[in-house]
Amino acid sequence: MPTCTAKEEQVLWKSSVHSRGSYNAAIADQTANLAIRGLLLFLIGVFLALVLNLLQVQRNVTLFPPDGFASIFSSAWWVPPCCGTASAVIGLLYPCIDRLLGEPHKFKREWSSVMRCVAVFVGINHASAKVDFANNVQLSLTLAALSIGLWWTFDRSCSGLGLGFAIAFLATLTTQLLVYNGLFQYTSPDFLYVRSWLPCIFFAGVITMGSIGRQLAMYEYKVVQEKTHQD
Amino acid sequence: MTVREKLRQKISAGFYWHGLLCASYPVPIILFTAVCILTCCYPLLKLPLPGTGPVEFTTGVRDYMVPPQEPSGDPGERPDWYRGPPVAYIQQVLVKAAVSPWDNRLVPVDAFRSPLGRVFSLLDEIRNHVHSDSSGVRSLEALCLQVTDLLPGLRRMQALLPEHGCLLVSPGNYWQNQRELFDSDPDLLRTVQQYEPKGLHTSATLKDLLFGVHGKQTGVSLNSRNRVVTYTITMALRHYDVRFLGSLRSRLKQLHPSANCSLREEHMVHVHFKEEIGVAELIPLVTTYIILFAYIYFSTRKIDMVKSKWGLALAAVVTVLSSLLMSVGLCTLFGLTPTLNGGEIFPYLVVVIGLENVLVLTKSVVSTPVDLEVKLRIAQGLSNESWSIMKNMATELCIILIGYFTLVPAIQEFCLFAVVGLVSDFFLQMLFFTTVLSIDIRRMELADLNRRLPAEAGMPPAKPGPLRPRETPPPPRPSPHTITLQTPAFRNLRLPKRLRVVYFLARTRLAQRIIMAGTVIWIGILLYTDPAGLRTYLAAQVSEQSPLGGAGLPHLAVAPVFPGGDPTGTLNVLPQADPTPALSENLSQGGRVPPAPDPERSSAGVSSSQLRVLHCESHVLCRRYISILPVIPVTFHVTPREALETRHPQDTRHAPPLQTDPSPNALPHGAPVQTDLTLYKVAALGLAAGVLLVLLLFCLYRLLCPRNYGQNGVQHGRRRRGDLPCDDYGYSPPVSEISPLLLRGHNMDIECLASDGMLLASCCLAGQIRVWDAQTGDCLTVIPNHGLRRCSSSGGWEHRDGWDAGAVTDLETLGGAEGQDAGGAGYPVRRRAAPSRPTLFGDQPDLTALIDTSFGQQPPSQAPSASSGFDFGGLVERAYLEHEPSVSPVFSAPPPQPVQRRRSLGDQPMAPTDWDSAVWALELRGNLIAAGRSSGKLEVCLWDAVEGSLRCSNEDGVSGITALAFLNNRIVAARLNGSLDFFTVDINKPLGLLQYRGGPGRGSMPPSPCYSSDDVISCQLTRSVQCAHQKPITVLRAAAGRVVTGSQDHTVRVYRLEDSCCLFTLQGHSGGITAIYIDQTMVLASGGQDGAICLWDVLTGSRVSHVYGHRGDVTSLVCTTSCVISSGLDDLICIWDRSTGIKLYSIQQVLGCGASFGVISDSLLVTGGQGCVSFWDLNFGDLLQTVYLGASSEGQGVRQLVVLDNAAIVCDFGSELSLVYVPSVLEKLD
Questions:
Q1: Which residues cross the membrane (chain A) (predicted)?
Q2: Of B631-635, B659-663, B1082-1086, which gets the smallest average pLDDT?
C-alpha cells in the first residue's frame, strides 16, 4: 500500500531528525530540568520553613532578635532562604548520589508516598512543638524513634541514612555556631546551646527533602528512558 | 518457615472466602456496614460540638465571692478560667405583661402597645433607684458598665444603642427611651421590624438584642395567640453589689408583684468564652490539611481500570473517614474523652491509617484475569494481597504500640485512637470497600461485555496483500487523500447542538461548579451581612491591638468593644428564654403553679445558633468570663381600659375586620384564620414553584434527552456543492482530491451489483452483465443477455469486432480524441469507461505491443455461428457504440487467449427464448458469476481475463430467483415461491491447479479459488427446501456457514450451509422481512416492513434487542462492532448503539437514496446522495466529506452503494457506475 510506505517513511524521517537533534536537546533539557527542580525544592523548603517556624514561635521555642520582618515572618528574614537553599541542595544531592551509586531509588516511588512522608514530617514538628513531654530526654528519644521510623517507612536506603546523619550533624553544628554568635537563641537549651531534638528534626527533614527530590528526579529519569527507547 | 507458610496459606484462603462472600451478597453487606458505622458513630452525638463554644459554670448566689486571681484549693470543681472578677455582671429584669381580661373591643395592636409602654416607667424606676445604707448612697450610675463609644460595625444602629453612659438595653431603645416618641409612633411593628435584616440569618438580630428573648417569644405581633408580651431590661454592672441589687429586686417585686413566678434565685451562671484560634495558628493546620488533600489526591489518582474512578475514590475516602469517626465514637463509648484538638490530629491520623490498602486491593483485583467471574476475581485479588495487607497492618500496629509506651499522655491518646482507627479501617476495607469494588467491577463487565467480545472475535484479518492475480501493478493514481480522524477526546460530537451543550456541561462539570461557587458566595454574603460575623472581624482587630487577656484591663479599652458584643451574647444565653412559655401559661390560665423550670437545665438547651453568636463574641471576652445574675421577674396586668387609653388613633386601621366582628367566638378564630391564610399562600406558592420546576425539567428533558426513541433525530442538512464541511474550529478538510471514476457501458439502468473486492459485476435492465476491474475501473468482460449472445455472431458484433480491429490501428487518433473529450468535459472526473488510454499505456507498455500483434493477426477469424433474429440488445448496443466511440474491453484483455473472447459461448447450448427473463440476482465469487433470472434459471458464468462464458446453468426451478448467496463452492438460491435451493459448484480441474487469491479484505469472504477456463464446472442441485417460507423470500444472506433468509411471511430462518438444515425460525417481526445482515461474527440483524429492527443471537436463536426505527420498511442494515446502521423507506439513516439499542443519531437522506449506504471501516460511513456520496464519521456523526460524482448527474440519486475491500465504493446512479476511491482512513489512536 502506498499509504503505508509513505507513513513508514515519514516515521523514519522523523526519527532520524529526532536522533540528530536529540543530543543537543537532551543537554539543554537536563540543565533546564535541574534548574526547575532546584527552584521547586527551594520553594518547598521556604514554605516548610515558614510554616514550621510558625509552630515553633507559637510555643516560644526560639527567640529571634526583634526585627522589622519578625512580625510578618515570625522569624528572621534569613531563615527561610537558608532552609530553601539547604533543601534544594539536599533534594538535588539525593538523586545525584543514587546515580553515582548506580541504582535509582525504587522503594515507594510515588507522589502519594511522598506526601505521606511530608505529612509525617510536619507531624513530627507538630509533636515537638505542641505535645507536653515529661522531660527533654523523653522528647528527644521519641522524636529520634519517629525519625528513624520515617526513614524506615519511606526510604530504607543506606545512602539516605548516611546522608541524613551527615547533614543532620552538620546542620546541628551550624545552629550551634549561629546561636553561639547570638543570632538567635532557644528559650530553654538543653543540648549545649540548642534543643536536643534538633538533630532529629534535621534528620527527618533531610529524609523528606530527599524523598521529594528523588520523586522530582523520576520525571527526568523517565524522560531520558523514553528518549533512549525512541532512539 | 513452615509455620509462616501455613499461616500465609490460611490467611489467603480466609481472604478468598471473604472475597467470595462480599461479591456474592453486596447489598446486605453494605447495609450491615452502614449500620455498624452509624452505631459506632452514635456516641459522637453526645460530644460537644467542636469549636470554641462558651463554657458555663454555675455557682450559688448566696455565698458568692469574687474568685481569687490565683487558683487555690480544690481545682477540680472550678474551671481554671474561673478566677478574678468577671468582665461584667449581667442583671436582667424579665417583664411579662398582658392585657387582661381581654375585651372584644380591643384590636390586636392593643395586645402589646400598652404592655410595651410600661417599659418606660420601669426604666425610670430602675434608673432612679437609689440604695443608701451605712456604706453610702449607690445608684445604677455608679455601678453600671460605662459605655463610651460604639463599635464601627454598629454605627447604623447608633440611634438605638446606648452610646454614652450606662449599658442598659431594653425595647425602649427603639424609641430612644422616650415615652413621647412611643406614644406618637403610629406603627409599632414597623419600627421594630425595620431594623431586622432580610434573608436568612442564624445569628441574633437587633430585636433579639433589645427584647432580650427570642423574637418569637416576645409576643409582639398581630397574631400572637396568648397575648402575653415578654421582654427584658438588661443592665451590665461592673461591680457586684449585693445590697443594691437586693434592694432593686425587692423594690421591683414590691411594685409589680409576679405572684406565681417560680424562677429560682439562687444560681449564678458564669459564662466563659474560650480563646479563639488566631490566623497564625491556623497556618500550620491549613498546611497539614493541604498536605492531606495532596496525599488523598495522589493516592486516588492511582486507581485505574475501573468503571468509575471517582466512585471508588469516594469510597476509599469514605472508608478512611468513617473509620476515624468510628474510632472516636468507640473511644468515647468506652469512656475515653478526647482531650486532643480533633482538628489538629485528624490529618495525621488519616496519614497513619492511609489509603494504601485500598489501592493495593483495587490494583490486585483489577489485575486478575478479566474473563473470570466477578466473584472469583474479587476473591483472587483479595487472597493475592492478603499476606501483604496483614503484614502491613501488623507492622503498623507494632509501631503504634511502641508509640504507646512512650508514656506521654498526648501520644498515648493519639496511639489509642490510631489503633482503634486502624482496626476499624481494616474492618471497613474488608467489608465496605471490597463490596463497592465488586459492584464496580460488575458494572464494568456489564458495560464492556458487549463491546469487547465481538471486537475480539470479529477482529478483521490483516490487510490483504495485493489482490490481483495479474502481475501488473495498479496504475498509479493520485495518492489517496487522507481523512484524519482525531481521537475522540479532542473532538466535539457532531451531534445535535443541545446535546453538545449537555456534553460540554457534563465534561466541565459546570453545574457542580456553579452550585459550589454559589454556595461559597452565599456563605460569603451571609458572613458579610451577618452583623455578628462582621463584629467578629472587627473585634478580632480590636483585640489584636489591645490584648484583652492582660490582667489590668483598662476600662476604656473594654468599653468600646463591649456594647456591641456583649448584650447579644448574654441576652441570648439567658435561661429565661425557655421558661417564658411556662410563665405565659401561668398568666393566661391564671393561678396554677407549674413545676419550677430549672435555669441550669434550660440553659443547656441553648440552640446552636445562639452558641455561634456567643462564639463570635469570644474575641471580646478573650480568656475572661461574665457572670449572669438571677433575673428579676416583673409582671404587669394591664386593664382593657388602660389599653384603650393608650391606643394610637391609627392602630384601629390595622385590623378593622376583627373589631367589626360581633361574634365573640370570632376573635379566638381570627388569628388562626390569618395564619391559615399565610399557610395557604405559602402552599400555593410552593405548588406553583413545583409545577414550574416540573415544567422546566420536562422542557429540559425534551430539549436535551439524547434518547429520542424512535423519532427522527436531527436532520443534517446536506451540504451543497461548494459548501465545505468544516468543524467547529473552522477547520475544513482540504478540498476533495477524491475524483470518482465513471464506469460507463450499460445502456439501461443498472439493476444488480455484485462484487468480491477485486471484480465488480453489474447487470442492467437489459440483462447485460459487465465485469469491471474494481481497481482500475476497466471493463473486463461484457456478458450480454442470452438473446444478445445469440446474435453476437451476427453482423452487429462482426461490425463491432471489425471496428475493434480498426481501433487498434487507429490507436493514436483514438487516444487523441479521448484526450479532447476529457478536456472538453471540464470537470475533474476521469472517464474510464472506455479503454483507458494514456495512463494504461504508461503503465503497461509491454501489453500494448502484445495487443497490437494479436489483434492484428486475428481480427476476422472469429467464427460466426449462424443465428439470426431481432435483438433489441444488439440494436441498443450498436447505437451505443455509435454514440460513444470508445468501446470497452479491447485493451484490457491480456493477449494469450484472444481467440476465446466471447465466441467461446457459441458451443454452449443456449435457451432460445429467455431473452425476456431479467436478471434478478447476481453474485460474484472468485471468477464465477452466478446470476439468478426471473425465469428461475441459475447461471454460473466463468469470468477470467478474457471470457465471460457461461459455464453451467441450472434450470430446475420454475419460480424466479429472488436472491442468491454464493459462499465457498455453494450457491443458495431463494425463489419467489418461497423455496430455497442449494447448489454445489464442482470444479474438475484437469491440471489440478487451484490457485488461491489473496484473502479479501474485510474478512467477510473466505479466500475463493480461482477457476481457470480449462476447468469443467458443474453446478448441481444438492438440496431443495421446498417450503422454506410460505411467501416469497425477499432477502438471503450467507456468512459464517449460515444462510439466513427473510421472507414476507414475517419470519427469518437460519440454515446451516453444509447440510441445508434449518436451525432456527426467528419470529418477532410484524411485517415482511426486508433487510438482513449477518457477518462472520455471527451477528444477525433483521429489519422488516414494520420498521422494526431485531438483533438476534445466531447461536441460540434468541432475540437480543428490538427497536422500532423507521416509518416504513427498513431497506438496508449494516452492523459494526459498536453500532447498527439502518436505512428505511423514510429516507433516514439511523445509527443505533448495538448494545443498548439506543438511537445515537440519524441522517436524513435525499429522497430515493435512502438505502444507499455502506460502512467502510468501523468509523467511516458512506451515504449516497443526489449525485454525490458523503463520508461520515460514524462515531460522532460528523460529515467528513462529500464527493460529487459528476457535473451532469446532479439530479440523479445514488441508488445503490457497494463498498469494496480496497475501500473503493461503487455507486450506481442510473446507467452509470461510479468508482470512488475512499481516502485512506487514518485513525489517530492515542
A1: 34-55, 75-94, 137-154, 161-180, 192-212
A2: B659-663
Euclidean distance between CA atoms A88 and A91, whole angstroms = 5
pLDDT, position B812: 40
Closest-CA distance of chain A to residue B426, Å: 19
Beta-carbon contacts of B853 under 8 Å, excluding residues fewer than 6 positions away, are B895
Size of interface A-B (CB pairs under 8 A): 87
Contacts of B292 in chain A (CB under 8 A): 119
Of A1, A119, A142, the CB nearest to B347: A119
Q: What is the pLDDT of residues B1130-1157, one digit of tens each?
A: 778 888 887 777 777 777 777 666 677 8
Read off the pLDDT of residues A11-49 as tens digits, 9 standing for 90 and up: 434 444 444 455 566 667 778 888 988 999 999 999 888
Cβ atoms B983, B954 nearer than 8 A: yes
Determine contact: B401 vs chain A, CB below 8 A: no
pLDDT for position B798: 37
pLDDT class of B274 with cuts at 50, 70, 90: low
Q: What is the ipTM of this complex?
A: 0.80
CB contact B998 to A (< 8 Å): no
Mind telling me how many Å the CA of A9 is from chain B's nearest CA? Answer: 15
The C-alpha of B1056 sits at a distance from chain A's nearest C-alpha, in angstroms, of 37
Quick one: cell of A220?
A: 527526568
Of B270-279, B400-409, B1180-1189, the least confident: B270-279
Distances in Å between the Cα of B302 and the Cα atoms of B369, B601, B986, B1093 are 19, 53, 62, 43
Nearest CA in chain A to B395: A153
* B297-312 as b/e: b if 16+ CB within 10 A: ebbbebbeebbeeebb
B289 touches chain A (CB under 8 A): no
Please check whether residue B597 touches A, CB under 8 A.
Answer: no
The reply to whether residue B355 touches residue A112, judged by beta carbons under 8 angstroms, is yes
Chain B nearest-CA residue for A72: B280
Name which of B1189, B1165, B1175 is nearest B1116 in CA terms. B1165
Share the mean pLDDT of chain B.
66
Residues from chain B contacting residue A197 (CB–CB below 8 Å): none
Give yes or no for a contact between B548 and B624, defined as CB atoms under 8 angstroms apart: yes
Question: What chain A residue is nearest to B406 in terms of C-alpha separation?
Answer: A142
Instruction: Look at residues B985, B982, B963, B962 and name the one whose alpha carbon lies nearest to residue B972.
Output: B982
Q: Give the residue from B1173, B1164, B1118, B1122 showing the smallest Cα distance to B1144.
A: B1122
Residues of A in Cβ contact (< 8 Å) with B1228: none
Q: Cβ distance B1073 to B1044 under 8 Å? A: no
B280 at A interface, C-beta within 8 A: yes
Half-sphere exposure at residue B254, Cβ-oriented, CA atoms within 13 angstroms:
7
Cβ atoms within 10 Å, residue B885: 14
- Answer whether A138 sits within 8 Å of B406, measured CB to CB: yes
Residues contacting B454, CB < 8 A, separation 6+: B1081, B1083, B1121
Q: Which residues of B touch A1 (CB under 8 A)?
A: 463, 1224
B630 or B604, greater pLDDT: B630
pLDDT above 90 coverage of chain B, percent: 0
Give contacts of A128 with chain B, Cβ < 8 Å: none
Q: Please check whether residue B1107 is in contact with residue B1093, taking contact to mean a CB–CB distance below 8 angstroms.
A: yes
Report the residue of B406, B1205, B1226 to disrupt the A interface, i.e. the one with the largest count of A CBs within 10 Å. B406
The better pLDDT of the pair B495, A164 is held by A164
Q: Which residue has the cell 431463494?
A: B974
Confidence of residue B898 (pLDDT cuts 50, 70, 90): very low
Name which of A107-111, B48-52, B257-261 the model is least confident about: B48-52
